[in-house]
Structures
1.
Amino acid sequence: MEITEKIIDYLVRNRVSTTEVADALGKTGVLNDVMPVNRGHYEAGKIKWIYAYEESNWPVHEQIQTMEEDCVVFVETFGCQDRAVFGELVSKYILLYHQSRAIITDGKMRDAAGLIKENWPIWCSGFTPVGCFNREPENEFDEKIKKEHFEKYDGAIAVCDDCGVVIIPKEQITEEFLEKLYHIEDQEDIWFDRLDHYKESTFDIVCKKKYLNDEIYMSRRKLD
């Protein structure tokens, strides 16, 4: 199993939260102002990067024709103003007919009632009834931006839950980062154990980390 698949497998099996992933990334990685359409979903997977620009979703329709299955589709918008990049029809095509894990966009969506009714795993920046135009843009998309953002996002890992979206950059998809995730998960277990069963204050747990000086406790944790 390649390291990308190992990390995704660990994230999904353990439902590692965006909070924990952001901590493992040094409190970075969040996709700002993007929140779930429907609560309770958890998705993690390899990103397929798609772009929309000039208030047009023509490029989106064009690009999603040939997507591989089982990815998280990230639609990034450029110059789309406050228009919805797409709605229920395209979401159904991506999620059902292309079997994608989730949809993320830094833009807005429309057809909110339909998206909520279907309870689809979608994360976006909000809703509006006013959509992008389905016309071919007058200009070619900036090749420099296209190259930079493709290299940055396509093949990275997205983690999505009720708190939002965190992206694990490709340069962080390593065995070392997987070890950080193990450590964060263990730390969370210890913190809640010290709170629930030892009745320590959060100051003693989080700031002073008094549990590290409890040799018997820490040795028992290692045995476990």
2.
Amino acid sequence: MNKRHYYLASCLALLFSTASYAEVDCELQPVIEANLSLNQNQLASNGGYISSQLGIRNESCETVKFKYWLSIKGPEGIYFPAKAVVGVDTAQQESDALTDGRMLNVTRGFWVPEYMADGKYTVSLQVVAENGKVFKANQEFVKGVDLNSLPELNGLTIDIKNQFGINSVESTGGFVPFTVDLNNGREGEANVEFWMTAVGPDGLIIPVNAREKWVIASGDTYSKVRGINFDKSYPAGEYTINAQVVDIVSGERVEQSMTVVKK
């Protein structure tokens, strides 16, 4: 069996010529650990510059080949790259930076121009190993809004949450509920349409909540709980739970997304 041994001798142990070893089953180790941090999470409406720190650690017991990139998803369907696809063969790293147990650190910055929409942006470090396994790390920042503010449609506040913070389910499946709260802070009633879907591996788009039209009186809040049952037959991978609310009168739309992983 492929195993890695760590030498854990302490000063006292050396005096007595004794040592201990911790044995790790390499086949149970993840191949790569990905980390991402941003130097700031808040930008004004006129945009600005963000510096990101990428950390990619080789957690396997041997050298690995992988590709990585940095992408950004924003409001109104904005997607743009922050770092192009880079291929790495850890056996050929001159600094031996990614031999087993070592980390590659990369600093990458990007501009967010004024013309891009205000709202929440997700920065995603994605790493694909030679064996096809995918490893990710995400961070969020906002432009022109408060980091903790809720999305709204002209005074209609939308608050959709993973009710119990269930971010993953086992391979046998499981149920994940979500709470939906729409508060109408307008002077008049709000006419909206709402729906939820789960976008998963292999192009799956699973209905979570059918399209519903709601009329919410001024000052009222519409609330409901809706969930998705991850059947054991669903493929393993990442599922993006996407909720969308459309103002029927103006045609404006907002959305919220949450991620659940099926093992």
3.
Amino acid sequence: MKTRVIQVDPQQPSASALADAADVLSRRGLVAFATETVYGLGALATDPAAVDRIYHAKGRPPFNPLIVHVEGITQARQFTAVWPKAADRLAGTFWPGPLTLVLNRSSLIPDIVTGGRETVALRVPLPPVARGLIERVGQPLAAPSANRSNRLSPTRAEHVLSDLDGRIDLILDSGPTSFGLESTVLDLTGSPLRILRPGPIGPEEIAQCLGGLDQVASTREDVAGPPGELPASPGMLNVHYAPRTPALRVDAIEDLAKISWPEKPALLVLGPAALPDLPDALHLVELPEPEAAGQRLYSILHECDALYLDVIIIVMPPDQPEWRTIRDRLVRAARPVAG
């Protein structure tokens, strides 16, 4: 298979490009497209054979559920068994946008989409390309990140092509994504409501929206299930979001003294820090501000992979709310340096 790439305007995608992509999808093909978070790999969510191609292209384990991207609240309700008051408030406030809601599914959602669970993860993407494609095809799209399983999420079309060339049909290239990190995933099926994956929308914003309607649990400890339990959401596996280059993490600049530097290392420093003397051959990247760090994190790690470095050393950002999502991704992407 030859993977085609079509350049599209991010704000005004051409009707011909969307029609081309919709035709691919209608024939059970796979189309990568930009959301506001990362590039997604789309297939018709109601067609098990099409969804199965996502799992094969990514090498994704079949128990790991997919997020379903819908046109709006009306379409979302069609694919849920129960639509609670909290869903109305949250969707009305944050959709379209980077919030995924986990709800009890209706019979219209195939088992393969949910990884064997009785819940479905739904969201409405923000960009005109993504929404235009869903509208054009007239059906929801199952769309995990457009990369090999457990690898870095793509924030540019070239990242998708590097990872999935020859494995998918089409990429709609609308430039870099705006947030750079995956959506917040919120489980609405129990009490308290649980943030299964931190993202651009934090627990404080969710709680403010709900106005005391429900309590919200937000730490990994709060959502940890019994050993062997199926993941309730994408992005919950302990090893995830990893670059090809070996990655190690330290909690503080002072911990760099523990490092035996190889010949070609990279150092990624997140948060404000005063650096000590470092090796001359070091590839150094500093990201002191959380918003810019979120936008650039995956892109920088992709760049490090392209340099064929020996190791990426990551200095973790402070344990503060504004760094919550980045810390979650780095804990899964990099191993701690032994003390």
